[in-house]
Specification:
The structure holds 2 protein chains of 2 kinds.
Chain A (H helix, E strand, L loop, with lengths): L4 E4 L4 E4 L2 E5 L3 E4 L10 E14 L2 E10 L5 E3 L3 E6 L7 E3 L5 E2 L12
Chain B lengths: L3 H8 L5 H11 L9 H8 L4 E3 L7 E7 L4 E2 L3 H12 L13 E4 L4 E8 L3 H9 L17 E2 L14 H11 L14 E3 L14 E8 L2 E8 L12 E7 L4 H15 L10 H21 L9 E2 L19 E4 L5 E5 L5 E3 H14 L4 E3 L5 E6 L1 H8 L3 H4 L6 H4 L1 E3 L14 H14 L11 E4 L13 E10 L2 E10 L11 E8 L3 H15 L6 H6 L3 H5 L49
Parallel strand pairs in B: 6-7, 7-8, 17-18, 18-19
Antiparallel strand pairs in B: 1-2, 2-5, 3-15, 4-5, 4-14, 8-9, 8-11, 9-10, 12-13, 13-16, 15-16, 19-20, 20-21
Helix pairs in contact in B: 4-9, 6-7, 7-8, 13-14
The chains are: A mainly beta, B alpha+beta.
The structure holds protoporphyrin IX containing FE, iron/sulfur cluster and zinc ion.
Iron/sulfur cluster binds next to loops of chain B.
């Protein structure tokens, strides 16, 4: 089966194959990013803006704020987890509070 | 490309959702195909059911829309009984007990922990008593709001209640307007005080006179969500009461045709208003959506608006004892953060029958009003023990508090809200003196930027955030000051960012001390804030810890239920079957 990813309830969470996987309100630690001037951004995810699949990664851009410096905005693409075997559709989420490096693009910004 | 939600809506939406919902309810939670969960939960909203947040799978929030907040004789008892029988979750709330009703900022009712399996019985009970959950959530005409004492108020120009009732009849269950790009919020105001809060709705009817005739001016495009607050804008149209429904039909058809269905974040009509401006909005409405000549705007009454206008010289928030034009009285009772236990709700229903006409109304400040109380019954009503908890003469910190649902149930939340606001209000009451003459002080607390507690139109606005304390993440709030409605509505200015939740009461204490110290004679808090620039506002007060103790600092959203003894996500019993027994979860 194809991996079905979307954001719902106005960006409150990410659904992967009809299972709620990633929620807002987590703090994400961002390195080598352009979100703000902090070396490591302490980013509070307030809303999911966009989701994408770049097999095996599930990617998302979040709206939120660096709670260190106060900068607000939308992140570049973050890998929020992986679906390694599309057949079983099992999602393996990343740990938000470990270090993440945002990327400029993902393959499929609007998966089917 | 239409959004995913639009695709689901084009398959099944509106009234027809009901038969599927009923089928699933008969067969049980497990009957919903796993790969159709998202689509069905999106659709269930149209029937007033909103799937609760992560960790609470299979439980629903149920919203009952009561137009203009009017709960007719007999209905409150039904609501209390339903809450008592069906709205009990696996764990009690430490402030509010096992079962409770929420009176909301849009004059609706919310129940929580509803099981799908109970929906048919609940619907039957509601509907046989003239109540409904239809279109209470979802992309359609939402509950119509207005002045809660419409038809019973001395300040009234037009009785807006029949108009609101008309709109409700016309647009609930009307297939032509069942599937809109997004929610559609309508307000009808008939009194000269502005308590319909039209300015923050998608479509507002406000009292205005044209050639000696009373009717409404029309405003479009208000809303608070997503850090994009907008006041509704004047589209230079006046309608007589009997044509309000035609203009409303035209406006919502315009939204249906021109609203953005590709990007839900851009869908509310406020964004179309940004793009078009009021002149084009009027022109398109006239040319394509109504078949009569729209009169230009009449003379409005905004210069008389007192509601949430920063000074209180009108009927204010409707709390207290007020005479009706028919010589009876209405008695507004303060419900702290809008939540009332099921037993108290049943008791209130009894009091309303005994002393009034049985009717109870909900305000947009999360309070209740017992109407139609004859003068000779007043003293006995005021002596009732229930009114000690729900006072007609509450302390300003009690009556001024509004809080949204927050991390207890809501997916979008960043922080805990209602229980915390209860604790804030109590601490402030016990520890902080309001400056002389200040009887009205509004503190609105929302757990995220969606702004369901309408934080931007309060004296003190609190919006859910996080910060670190000693390196640890804790719940926090951005603090805004000086918002309100009235003739010249104003959104709060955000002044202090990311204040740890346990330092907010100290901030407010210091703020009020500065206000008392520095204010000019008779200067209201709103004027005091308006008279200061950004730097001056930032210097007004420091946040600090006090004797206030906050049990909800610990990132409540990461729990399955913030008040459970074992609150770890893995300790959640959800999803459960119809009798509350845990089911194997799908992951
Ligand atoms: C489970 C609980 C709730 C959820 C998930 C929820 C969701 C949302 C969302 C996503 C928004 C912002 C997006 C938008 O404007 O459409 C919003 C705004 C709003 N909601 Fe809620 N809400 C909840 C409870 C409530 C309650 C109890 C009320 C009162 C009836 C309410 C009234 C409002 C108001 C007044 C706004 C902001 C004004 C506006 O932009 O129109 N919400 N809500
Ligand atoms: S303001 Fe945010 S946290 Fe509060 S109920 Fe609305 S969506 Fe939930
Ligand atoms: Zn930063």
């Amino acid at each position: 089966m194809t991996t079905d990813v979307h954001q719902l309830d106005d960006g409150a969470w990410i659904s992967v194959n009809d299972s709620r996987e990633i929620n807002v309100s987590d703090l994400w630690l961002l390195a080598r990013h352009e979100f703000c001037d902090c070396e490591m951004a302490d980013f509070l995810a307030e809303g999911v803006v966009e989701v994408g699949v770049d097999y095996p990664d599930i990617d998302a851009r979040f709206a939120g704020r660096c709670i260190q410096c106060g900068t607000e905005g939308v992140t570049d693409w973050l890998t929020v987890g992986r679906v390694i075997d599309p057949e079983d559709g099992q999602f393996y989420g990343v740990v938000p509070e470990s270090v993440h490096v945002p990327r400029k693009r993902t393959r499929l910004a609007r998966p089917e | 490309m239409p959004s995913k939600v639009e695709n689901w809506k084009s398959e099944v939406y509106g009234s027809e959702i009901r038969e599927h919902l009923m089928e699933f309810a008969e067969e049980g939670w497990d009957a919903i195909p796993e790969d159709e969960h998202d689509a069905w939960f999106e659709r269930f909203k149209w029937w007033g059911l909103y799937h609760q947040r992560s960790g609470q799978e299979s439980y629903f929030m149920m919203r009952i829309g009561t137009p203009n907040g009017v709960i007719e004789s007999g209905q409150l008892e039904v609501i209390g009984e339903i809450a008592k029988e069906y709205a009990t979750g696996p764990v009690d709330n430490p402030e509010f007990g096992a079962a409770y009703c929420d009176w909301t900022t849009r004059q609706s009712i919310q129940l929580h922990w509803i099981k799908l399996e109970d929906v048919p019985e609940i619907f039957e009970k509601l509907e046989s008593n003239g109540l409904s959950t239809q279109q209470a959530c979802g992309d359609s005409w939402r509950n119509i709001v207005g002045c809660p004492v419409a038809g019973k108020d001395k300040h009234e120009h037009i009785d807006a209640w029949p108009v609101a009732e008309d709109l409700h009849e016309e647009f609930k269950g009307n297939d032509d307007y069942a599937n809109l790009p997004r929610k559609w919020k309508v307000s009808v105001t008939g009194c000269d005080q502005g308590c319909g809060q039209g300015d923050i709705n998608d479509l507002a009817f406000e009292p205005a006179e044209k050639d000696g005739e009373l009717g409404f001016n029309v405003r479009v495009g208000g809303g608070l969500s997503r850090k994009e607050p907008r006041f509704a804008r004047d589209i230079d149209v006046w309608v007589p009461p009997e044509q309000a429904s035609d203009v409303a039909a035209g406006m919502s058809a315009l939204f249906r045709e021109y609203g953005d269905r590709e990007d839900r974040f851009n869908a509310r009509i406020k964004f179309l208003m940004d793009e078009w401006g009021p002149e084009k909005m009027r022109r398109v409405l006239q040319e394509e959506f109504v078949d009569f000549e729209l009169p230009t705007a009449g003379e409005d009454m905004r210069d008389q608006y007192t509601y949430n206008a920063g000074h209180d010289d009108g009927h204010g928030d409707h709390v207290g004892v007020h005479e009706q034009p028919d010589g009876n009285y209405y008695v507004g009772l303060d419900v702290l953060v809008g939540r009332m236990g099921a037993d108290d709700t049943l008791e209130l229903a009894e009091l309303a029958e005994e002393y009034g006409s049985g009717e109870v109304r909900l305000t947009q400040r999360q309070n209740v009003i017992v109407t139609d109380v004859p003068e000779e019954n007043l003293d006995a009503l005021l002596d009732e023990p229930l009114l000690e908890d729900y006072s007609p003469d509450p302390h300003p910190f009690m009556r001024g508090s509004i809080a949204c649902t927050g991390s207890e149930f809501c997916s979008l939340s960043i922080t805990e809200t209602k229980n915390r606001q209860v604790r804030y209000a109590r601490w402030l009451k016990d520890n902080v003196d309001l400056p002389d003459g200040v009887e009205d002080f509004h503190i609105h607390l929302s757990g995220c930027t969606a702004s369901c507690a309408q934080p931007q139109i309060a004296d003190v606005s609190l919006r859910g955030m996080k910060t670190r304390k000693d390196g640890e993440p804790v719940e926090a709030f951005d603090i805004g000051l000086g918002g309100g409605l009235g003739e010249d509505p104003h959104f709060a200015d955000w002044v202090e960012m990311r204040v740890a939740a346990d330092e907010v009461p100290g901030y407010i204490q210091n703020l009020l001390a500065t206000y008392e110290d520095q204010r000019e004679d008779g200067e209201t808090f709103r004027e005091f804030v308006a008279a200061r620039d950004e730097d001056e506002l930032q210097d007004l007060a420091e946040a600090e810890e006090t004797s206030y103790d906050d049990p909800y600092m610990h990132n409540t959203k990461m729990t399955w239920y913030p008040y459970a003894e074992d609150d770890d996500m893995n300790a959640s019993p959800a999803p459960t079957d119809g009798s509350g027994q845990p089911l194997p979860s799908d992951d």
